[in-house]
Specification:
2 copies of one chain form a homodimer. Chain A is α/β, with parallel strands linked by helices. Chain A has helices spanning 5-12, 16-24, 31-44, 50-57, 79-92, 105-117, 135-141, 165-178, 194-210, 224-235, 249-262, 275-280, 289-302, and strands spanning 62-66, 96-100, 123-127, 146-149, 160-163, 184-188, 217-219, 243-246, 267-271, 283-286, 317-320, 323-325. In chain A, the strands form 2 sheets. A 6-stranded parallel β-sheet of chain A has the order 2-1-3-4-5-11, sandwiched between helices. Chain A has a 6-stranded mixed β-sheet with strand order 7-6-8-9-10-12, sandwiched between helices. At the A-B interface, helix 4, helix 5, strand 2, helix 6 and helix 11 of A face helix 4, helix 5, strand 2, helix 6 and helix 11 of B.
Chain lengths: 333, 333
């Protein structure tokens, strides 16, 4: 049997109220008494029931998050940073993260629904959205509060936070042009993914604004081998580019390998400033992940999870700006 | 006001028992009825109370874990893989992970204590243990169930899982000797850390077994700059080593950079097989993190969290074996 407050009070030789004070307002209790009560709590293994408290408050103070599988081909990820940022932001607001896994997007919704119905979470954070993503409409229909990192194009009905991907690749392109490059290529994700198209668009529009013609635009899956393969294709060109803006650090690492293997010069800028970028001396566009995490938790708590009156305007939405980190891969002559 | 089972039953035009069946034994309910009840649940936003259920069961079915800060100088981490492995293993056992942050080890214990007392978690998983670690004794005193990834030297009182660090560096050393290297150095953490000493010991004892004299043994903090600095010192030696076993991929990346900057040849093996290792074509010792995660969850659930009779023998303990991943950094002539 679980020990009760009465058991603790008896063990410590104090009143039930004193035990309650130690738990809820320890500053009101004299240190010697507090220590005695804490010793009794430890000895008996007593656990007051925040579960019962959260029942009364109708809140679990928990936010659900599906932990992403580790991408087997990517050379680095910002996921670790994002998770830490969410946990930190949650702590500041007295919420914890509940992690769950899922086999796919519909399994993610089903798990979130089960946890929400069970009262285990108050709402969830979504990661990696794309056009046609089935999660937002399903969550809205099931009335599960959520905030999204990324946009689907139908984002008026829920809070979201995103990073301006086009601004990141535009900054990378201007940086390469300032270093004297006139033929700047782009290597990115397969066509049709929103994030990939925004990164391509930033490169294209920056070249246009600079009065430079677009260099080659090659696409492929996000792997080192693909980056190396596309790098070899670029270098085999009759008029090879002298610089490349890559949509990820993984593709950038492959481009650097292709250049090294041929003893060729190729200035490269990656995206995400993963830990690998520092190891490769790779310039890279850094997303403000810590700010994203805090903005998402605030958006969720001030929006769908708020108990106060809902504002009439659109849900909180924020577009944050990335920062270009310059290293040797784009500056070494 | 939160809607009740009665509200759902009225909305769907069914009995209270039918609603309960949809929630707890949906296979007993005809599909059309189930759909009607589920529509009513969604419309009203009803949430049955697993909180109340966990109160009766005296279990939150949650395992706490402190998410580590992202190491600013390391070029990669296995933390993301470890977290995913824990979440996956928890799912298989019907438990979820609750993530919390902490400023330091004593804050970690204080947060775990608060969460455990509150009934929010049943126990925790510890990461990164070291000799003299204050957490195990504090958690034992507070009767908070836990399992540890790593050992402190006083591990008889709780379950732990560890990876045989010495076996990993020994395999790396034998691999380099087989490739013809006769002067093999070690670059590791500052002296005095258990994991660091075990990795050094594997290198030293493997050389001894091979009848080779130990090469230089240099130590420093786990950063790219330190690796590059120690690499330069090795190459400046009158009788420079031709190969190095590094205690981390970060130090290994620095060693490779030092060799590249001088146009020198240096075979290098790292440790942890972080995503960066693939990007650098770096051979590395890979910890079986997925197996560690599953072993830890099982150790916790079958040990301290078990409601069954406790076995008389020592808590579950497992030492798992790492695997050497061979890439170009140790094989290219």
């Amino acid at each position: 049997m679980q020990p009760t407050v009465e058991d603790v009070a008896r063990e410590a030789g104090v009143s039930r109220q004193t035990v309650s004070n130690v738990l809820n307002a320890p500053e009101r209790v004299r240190p010697e008494t507090r220590e005695r009560v804490e010793a009794a709590i430890a000895k008996l293994g007593y656990r007051p029931n925040r579960v019962a408290q959260s029942l009364r408050a109708s809140s679990s103070r928990m936010i659900g998050y599906r932990i992403e599988p580790v991408h087997p081909h990517a050379v680095g990820s910002i996921h670790d940073r994002f998770l830490h940022a969410l946990a930190d932001a949650g702590r500041a607001e007295d919420h914890h993260l509940l992690l769950y896994t899922a086999d796919d997007l519909s399994d993610e919704v089903a798990n979130a629904l089960a946890l929400h119905r069970a009262g285990a979470i108050d709402g969830i954070v979504l990661y990696g959205l794309h056009a046609g993503d089935p999660r937002p409409p399903a969550l809205l229909e099931q009335r599960i509060p959520f905030a999204a990192f990324g946009r689907t194009g139908h984002d008026d009905a829920h809070p979201w936070v995103d990073v301006d991907n086009a601004a990141g690749t535009a900054a990378a392109t201007r940086h390469l042009a300032e270093a004297g490059h006139r033929r700047v290529a782009f290597v990115g994700y397969p066509r049709g993914t929103d994030v990939g198209e925004r990164r391509a668009e930033g490169w294209r529009s920056a070249l246009d604004a600079l009065g430079l013609p677009p260099g080659p635009d090659l696409r492929g899956e996000d792997s080192l081998a693909t980056g190396a393969h596309l790098g070899a294709r670029l270098l085999d060109d009759d008029d090879p580019p002298t610089a490349v803006v890559a949509a990820t650090d993984t593709l950038a690492a492959g481009l650097l390998r292709a250049a090294r293997d041929r003893g060729a010069r190729l200035a490269v800028v990656g995206f995400d400033d993963t830990p690998t970028a520092a190891a490769l001396d790779l310039s890279s566009v850094r997303q403000p992940i810590e700010a994203v995490g805090h903005a998402m938790i605030r958006a969720l708590l001030n929006g769908p999870l708020s108990n106060g009156p809902k504002p009439d305007d659109l849900p909180a939405a924020r577009l944050l700006h990335p920062e270009l980190i310059v290293r040797g891969s784009s500056t070494t002559p």
